[in-house]
Amino acid sequence: MRNKTLRLFAALLALAMVAAACGGGDDDGGGTASGEAPSFDEPVEIDYWLWDANQQPFYEQCAADFTANVQPNITVKVEQFGWGDYWTGLTAAFASESAPDVFTDHLARYPEFVESGVLVSLNDFVDRDGVDVNQYFPGLAELWTSPDGDRFGLPKDFDTIAMVTNTDMLADAGITIEDFASAEWNPQDGGTWGELIQRLTIDANGVRGNEDGFDPSNVAVYGFGLEGAFGAFGQTTFSSFAASNGYVATDEPWANEANFGDAELAETIQFFADWIEAGYVTPIEDVESLGGTTIFQEGGAATQTNGSWMISTLSGDATTVPVAYAPLPVGPIGERRSMFNGLADSITTSAENPDAAWEWVKYMASPACQEVIGEGAVVFPAIPSATKIAQDAHNANGVDVSAFTVHVDDGTTFLFPINDSASRVEDAVGPVMQQILRGEGTAADLLPAAAEEVNSILGG
Q: Do domains 10-156+345-398 and 161-340+417-459 have the same CATH topology?
């Protein structure tokens, strides 16, 4: 691993490391990760954090099952925080030596925590207990291994991206979900996918985007709604389009450089900027102020791309529009592409009883818990048999989710670009993306300088 100084979070996390080095925890007879698995004769409470309120009741069920059936002297306290508060609170908790024993970790964040030394390596635990890391979908377990070979999480779920469509709006335009399933996209004219987006766009006078007299300055319904601001990685926005145009963000995980200066990326970003100006795609100002999913749910956009973790929100009982999902369009490379991301559970160095924390992590990564999560139909668990349960649960609810799983089935996924400076990369690239989408400069002109800054960060 590169020996770099972590600038973001440095002050707070350094305090946490000092506190941990000073012996902040009481072992409570928990033992170590070597040798035989310890017994737990005294009660132990594990504090577990997650950010997804939709998943909380199912992990609470896992926690109850874990105590009742596996470790009667270990109880788990499940705490949920909103996304922004979650990461702010976690950083502050590391600094104050009050971090949870176990938390839901994200690929965009964990390399920085690895660099800061606040996560416990799971290698000895995995070896001691013979955990089969091949039981998960291919590639998920490897995402949580550092260049030094240390494992810092066991997979809990995976996610992919698909087209989300308002079926009423499709019907009004004479478009079927199959039209989107077979659509092709290119950054020059949008391809057949672009034709569908133009037809779904309607101005305030009722003129569609593919008709004479369309007014791009007064749009009532956009054909395509950005889910969010692009940022550096564009998981739910540009990443799939760029990848299907031949763009590869980094040549390997933990790379010393990235490819933000590549023409394939610039073409993709410029396409969206041009189509915002043409009136077919939601303006970035609206997305930032209102939220892309809110715009879609309130009928301001006919389609969007979004992640599989949003299925229960978009298709649940509280949904405001009828939704169907389609695979992403096929790009110039002749295939569709979806970013393949996965979450895992990590143990912190603040854990007072790492062995007990490991028992909980191991249980969450087992079929016993992941099948409970699958029954909840909120996410796709990391174990294939549990994902099948989730698919069946969605089907029972009348929701076809094959548009998300097809990417795993046919091998058209690509990995989240893992690096140990994601926050700094985001700071370097995110504002440039906003400039481009606002028409304040072209992608070809602005991205090369951002690319140089990123490579300086990664290679520094």
A: yes
